[in-house]
């Protein structure tokens, strides 16, 4: 299949919308990462999404809408808490679980679960495209399963060229990590995946919010099926370095003594104090938002430095967007840490 590459314009949005209505797949920018969209009401389209990404069939998709009333077609009830969160954070990087109406969506979307994950993105191109189709659009991140999510149209091309009908290029996405997935269907609201809307911001609206223990704990299964897979990983193994710059340098030196070629993923300030083989910046230490925005591009960049055999990455404070940044880094590293001893 030849993948059509469209630069953002009104005509491009119209073409992309027709492509979706015809049951084909379109990659489009959102404020978090690029999504791979298909008609959520057609099994034929949704199956193509799983196939193009090589995604395990037990990992459900997020349904994207442009208008609140679209929920009525495929959700049975909207709780007060969900109502409050939609009011405060939609359109934006927040995905909410809601009980799904039987038969309203292609069954593959929810992978057999009783809930559907829904979000209204705030990116103007995404909203324009969704409005133009009038359809609920199922869209996972537009990467090959297991790779870092795409924050640029070029990343989508690297992974999916020839496998999907169309890529709508809207430049770099803003937030850089995916939406926060929140489950309000139980007794207490739980973050199943940290993301663009911080825990602190959620709590300011609905009070205490838990974080799924399965994200940190190797023995407990995460509640979002997608969070159990190795993910966001470049080709070389990643280790997280928790210690001073002197400790970080000692780790680099040790790997080099063993003949490894060491890639370093860190902020400008940290990189200035280190000497590894390939340095990739995640932005400024004083600005965790910039780290989130650069993270996936940084992880992907090592795949263009094939000589790198091991990647050492800086760690960040888990406050605010740092919770999402550290969750993705821990997954990329398979939770492998190099820690300076406590004393
Ligand atoms: O920012 C985003 O959310 C991006 C953009 C494109 O919107 N999308 C995205 O989709 O990251 P995806 O498919 O890569 O991640 C969806 C996550 C997975 O971890 C999946 O397991 C979880 O949401 N999920 C989806 N439906 C669920 C459900 N009903 N119950 C629990 N987890 C669910
Ligand atoms: Mg994904």
How would you describe this structure in keywords?
343 residues; alpha/beta; DHBP synthase; Rossmann fold; eleven-stranded mixed β-sheet; 11 helices; 19% strand; globular; binds magnesium ion; tRNA binding; EC 2.7.7.87
Structural class: alpha/beta
* Element string (H = helix, E = strand): EHEEHEHEHEHEHEEEHEEHEHEHEHE
Overall shape: globular
Number of domains: 2
What's the CATH architecture of the largest domain? Answer: Alpha-Beta Complex
Proportion of beta-strand residues: 15-25%
User: Can you tell me the CATH topology of the largest domain?
Assistant: DHBP synthase
Radius of gyration: 20 Å
Spatial strand sequence of the major β-sheet:
1-8-2-3-7-4-6-5-9-10-11
Count every helix, treating DSSP H or I runs of 4 or more residues as helices.
11
